[in-house]
Structures are given as C-alpha cells and as structure tokens.
Amino acid sequence: MGAVRIRDLQPGDVPALARLLASLDLGLWAQGRDSSEVERALESRMEARTETTTIRVAEAEGKLAGYASAHWLPNLFLAGPEGYVSELFVAQENRGQGIGGALLDSLEAEARARGCARLSLLNLRDRESYRRGFYLKRGWTERADAANLIKKLGP
User: Fold this and answer.
1) Is the N or C terminus of the chain more exposed, i.e. has fewer CB atoms within 10 Å?
2) Is CATH 3.40.630.30 what the domain over 4-9+51-137 is classified as, yes or no?
3) How many whole angstroms separate alpha carbon 155 and alpha carbon 129?
4) Which stretch of DSSP H or E encloses residue 131?
5) Which pLDDT score, from 0 to 100, does residue 28 have?
C-alpha cells in the first residue's frame, strides 16, 4: 500500500462514502437504499454539520479507504471538553494497513488542539477491532466500572 492521506470530508467524497457505508454490512440506515437516496441524505448531513463535529476520510491509492467522525462536547466536571469518536470504519480490503490508526491519530491531534480532557468511544465486543485489541494497543483503556446504555428512539 502507498501513503495514506487523512483529510476533512469534502462534498465530492459523498459518492465514495455512500459506497463505503453500503459495503460495511452493519445494518446501517443506508443498507438496501438506492445510492442516490443515500447520497442525498449524506449531503444533507454534511450541510447540518457544525464546528462541534469533525469528519475525516482516509485516501489510499486515490480511493476513499475509511472515515472517522468525532464530536466535541462541553463538559462541566472534566478539566476540558470531551471528544467522542462516534464512527471509525475502514473498508474491508484496506484493513490492517494502518488506516484506522491514522484516522484515530488525526482525531486525537484535533482533540488536543481543542483542549479536550479525554476522548471516548464505543466499541462492540463482537467487532473485529475489539477482538484484536485495536484500541487497547493504541493506549486506550476499557472502563470496567461503566455501563453503556442506549434508548432507541426510532425504527
């Protein structure tokens, strides 16, 4: 593999990002939808972004190989904001090439520049990245004293 380029998501990336989302097979909202419908939804989401959201993409050999998003949350009990990495996905054919690590490094640098006290994320235990210890190997700590709770609000 050649060099990996990490950069902010641009409007021209929408078709490639739509294809990547469809390839992830995670039961995402994009599954089974027409590609133009997915692209319109992504364009709308890009327009709705604020300065509290960062979306980065990774290019490898001229193709979009992965993406990551983070949200910068004000926090009253920490010394600074908290960065929440909500998504980090790499195309199946590009895994194991350092792309996920490069995306994560980019978000960590952004968090430091924003004065964040910590970064957090959710990694499901049945995911390949969890099973191979991707985040632990990169200095992250799994919290044994915390529960991750969700409440579904839609179908």
Assistant:
1) C
2) yes
3) 27
4) helix 128-131
5) 64
- The partner residues of 139 in beta bridges, in order of sequence, read none
Residues, the chain:
155
**Mean pLDDT within 27-36:** 70
23's CB contacts (< 8 A; 6+ apart) are 91, 92
Phi then psi for residue 67, to 5 deg, are: -155, 160
Helix, strand, coil % (nearest 5) of the chain? 35, 25, 40
Contact 30, 21 (CB under 8 A): yes
- CB neighbour list of residue 102: distance below 8 Å, 6 or more residues apart: 4, 6, 58
Based on C-alpha coordinates, what's the Rg of the chain? Answer: 16
Sequence-ordered list of residues with C-beta below 8 angstroms from that of 148, at least 6 positions apart, any chain? 122
Edge-to-edge strand order for the sheet containing 82-90?
4-8, 53-60, 63-73, 82-90, 118-121
Phi, psi at 117, each rounded to 5°: -80, -30
Tokens 């895994």, residue?
A: 95
Closest among 68, 67, 14 to 44, alpha carbons compared: 14
Residue 83 tokens read as: 């960065």
36-45, 52-61, 111-120: least confident range: 36-45
